[in-house]
Amino acid sequence: MSSEHTLAMEPVRAYLLGKLDEAASASLEERYFTERACLLRIQEIETALINEYLDGEMPSADRLMFERKYLETAGLRARVEEVRASRAAAPAVREPRVRTMWRPAFAMAVLALLCYVGWNFVHDRGPATGKPALAVIAMRLSPGQAMSAGAPAELTLPPGGAEVKLILDLPGVQTPIRCSVRLLLPGETGAASGKRTDLGQFTSEPGGGGQSLTVPVSSGQLVPADYLVEVDGPDGERIQTYTLRVNR
Asked: pTM for this one?
């Protein structure tokens, strides 16, 4: 039986709100990164969850969790606005909704991908020219390994490019934290002469034995090289550094 029929709604809803435990979250993340039917099912449930919020039908406890996650993270906030725009473009007369999110949403086939850890989702629509959607690559990185201490984590990009999701573990961090993330390509004389690319600010979510960040990176920003990924906390202090080797 396909993932679309076997994937239960309740654990997905808990996952989207950040209530699912770490082991179950990791299992679900592995499925939506490898099974297209699972990804589409999660997107359908996410759309229904956002509609429930926009209709004012969400229980107060869930509403607080939804707002803390979806309205404070740029990528997820954009997803809410995307659904809101789709509702505005729909006919004025809408079929009455049952006061529960378990009814699958229809007429909203916008594809997106979740993160973090995040709770970050990938847009799976090809452009109007009919070009195929980019491949999605998720890579989990752990901090603390220097380039000289051994082979760093390796990311091999396909010829046609890919949408990359870096899942950055934050061991020891037990509560959500807002972080700034940068990509550093060291220069000939080391990090001081390197090129830094700001990837943005992200809020951590449960994962990796504590909290983790899900950071989208365009493959166009990456060339074959060894990189450092730097994470600063809310006070601007460096809290973790990761190594990544990119191949093509």
From this structure: 0.45
